[in-house]
Amino acid sequence: MIKLNQGSGLIETFEKDLTLDVLCNEKIRIFQKKKGYRFSIDAIILANFVRLKKQERVFEIGTGCGIIPIYMTVIMGYRNKFTGIEIQQELYQLALKNKEINHCENIEFIKGDVRESIPDFKGIYFDVVISNPPYTKEKTGRTCPTPSRLIARHEKLLPIESLLIAASRILKQKGRLYLIYPVKRLGELIYKAKSEEFEAKRVRFVHPRRDERANLFLVEFVKKGGIELIVEKPLYIYENFYYTEEIRRYYA
Predict the structure, then answer these.
(1) Any idea what the CATH number is for the domain that residue 242 is in?
(2) How many domains does the chain have?
(3) Which stretches of the chain drop beneath a pLDDT of 50?
(4) Please, which residues have CB within 8 angstroms of residue 164's CB and are 6 or more apart in sequence?
């Protein structure tokens, strides 16, 4: 075990297989496994694409270590009620720890499989669902070295169809679903979303650099929304070897 002075008079102990990552000018502290799934810039980009109104209830499918609701609370200043569900026990435990060390009392994390947990939310509906889902089709792409990364990156336990069904069932009418997904699967996602009565309302393409094609896109769906789509200006991650000004603002 390692002991860490958090600067507030508290001593936090954590196992040697964890790292403590400090983000956004030391405003956020996040415990993660050294080996296994670790959040990427995708989560930060998605958080900044989401738009929330006061009092809206937010549900995150596949919360991982809890980075998105914690970031949106601490950095973006939202005080909405967030509920995050995570299927992996070790990530769920990290989310609870990260909630505690970042003092996010507005966030609730639950352990479970969203496909099986829908009945638990009978009569409880959310205004917004957020997910940075696994988006590599099963039996395709590179093999992940750990089960944690495999579950987080490959559609082994959460195919996109299952995510859309779950989101539709727990969202209010006109509720919003926010996702980040590979451009190569845009047509597939839009098509499958329509089967659950989701209409794409906003899309933003994410490019590694200005002279490179988009590899990801951000999308806002509205449940039973009208047919009207806004394509926002592109988001560029790097300029030369550094983050662009917009990305740097995300980490300020």
Answers:
(1) 3.40.50.150
(2) 1
(3) 1-11, 13, 141, 144, 148-154
(4) 177, 192, 193, 195, 196, 198
